[in-house]
User: What shape does this take?
Amino acid sequence: RPARPAAQWLSAAGRFEAQGSLGGAAAQSRLRIISLGASKGQEIEVAATGTDADEAVRELSALISSGFGEA
Assistant: This one.
């Protein structure tokens, strides 16, 4: 089940030039994201570096806050 949110993160992150990270780790592979072991309700740091980093952090944070569209 964690593979779907990881795929959604990678799809959303791919629209930006910025490089995103979750929990201080580069988040550029499905396996790395899944290995974070984040669960619903847990806080996790979203960061990005690059020309559109602010926009990337806003959109990726919103994706996480939405529960990846799952109830």
User: Anything to note?
Assistant: Strands lie at 19-22, 25-26, 46-49. The mean pLDDT is 87. The first helix runs from residue 3 to 13.
